[in-house]
Design a protein that fits this description.
Blueprint lengths: L5 E2 L20 E2 L3 E3 L2 E7 L9 E9 L10 E10 L9 E11 L6 E9 L4 E3 L8 E9 L2 E8 L5 E7 L9 E6 L2 E3 L5 E3 L7 E12 L5 E4 L7 E8 L19 E4 L9 E6 L8
Parallel strand pairs: 2-18, 3-18
Antiparallel strand pairs: 1-14, 4-13, 4-18, 5-10, 5-16, 6-7, 6-13, 7-8, 8-9, 10-11, 11-12, 14-15, 16-17, 16-20, 18-19, 19-20
Length: 280
């Protein structure tokens, strides 16, 4: 079960996209960005003057087996989503699974969830086990979001449509391993220490963009229609959206994405320690 007030929210940071022209011959990979709570890849414009409008994102991963340590409370989330990457973004549509440690036992808890930021996450009534293969997709049509999650191992499925009046963000697409955030009654949030999940591999990666003429274009991380921004998670490495990070003893704990496969359909994220945080 997720802890009370658990919000799976981005730590905002500047999306410093490399300069280039839209629809370049090959995709551009941006220099790694650093976040206090995200690790993975985001699809962003190759040209900052030509925004992207995504309509869906999908990916598959095997639920990692978490490693818990007595006395250390931690959390981890694995998801696909649209929006939330831009520095001024206030919305994010996301769907995934999680693995938490409460510090009182070495037995992790596993769960699935969906979320429309800035609202809190909603747990999905599916039993998730380590080793389960999960496929997730988020689709946006106008103001309607469709969440679809399929546990290929247990054959369980979840589908939900949500129509909202709030402004949605479809300017980016992501595949992320996250250190979630704990928000108290005051509304102040802190990034929770990241659960040791070992390695998670995202496969079957794809996203669809709606073009200016109304047609659609689908591709992967290496598609020439956009740039792929790798994101490194380093605790203490960025003040982030919430303005403060976990206990100083967690500094240097985080996660690092590997290179994308040639076809752009696969990459892995590994949990790590002793990472070097950039200067503040």
């Amino acid at each position: 079960m997720p802890r009370p007030f658990l919000f799976l929210v981005i730590a905002a940071f500047a999306a410093a996209a490399a300069a280039g022209t839209a629809r370049a011959a090959t995709s551009t990979t941006i220099a790694p960005q650093v976040s206090s709570n995200w690790s993975g890849y985001a699809l962003v414009p190759t040209d900052e003057t030509t925004p992207l409008t995504f309509s869906d994102v999908t990916g598959t991963w095997k639920q990692p087996k978490a490693s818990c340590t007595l006395g250390r409370s931690s959390s981890s989330a694995f998801w696909v989503g649209l929006g939330g990457y831009a520095e001024d973004s206030t919305a994010l549509e996301q769907l995934g699974t999680g693995a938490d440690c409460n510090g009182n036992t070495t037995t992790p808890s596993y769960y699935a969830w969906w979320e429309l930021v800035p609202a809190s996450s909603v747990q999905i009534p599916l039993k998730i086990k380590p080793g389960d293969t999960i496929t997730a997709a988020v689709l946006v049509q106008g103001q309607t979001i469709t969440f679809f999650l399929h546990d290929l191992t247990s054959k369980a499925r979840f589908s939900k449509k949500v129509t909202t009046a709030q402004t949605l963000d479809v300017s980016s697409a992501e595949w992320i391993a996250e250190a979630p955030s704990d928000c108290g009654a005051s509304g102040r949030c802190r990034v929770v220490p990241l659960t040791n999940f070992g390695t998670v591999t995202f496969t079957n990666i794809a996203a669809t963009e709606t073009l200016a003429d109304g047609t659609s274009h689908s591709g992967t991380l290496t598609d020439p229609g956009w740039s792929a921004a790798p994101i490194e998670l380093i605790a203490g490495g960025h003040a982030g959206f919430f303005g403060f990070n976990p206990d100083p003893s967690e500094t240097g704990v985080g996660a690092v994405p590997g290179d994308a496969s040639t076809d752009g359909r696969t990459f892995s994220v590994r949990w790590a320690q002793n990472l070097t945080a950039p200067s503040q």
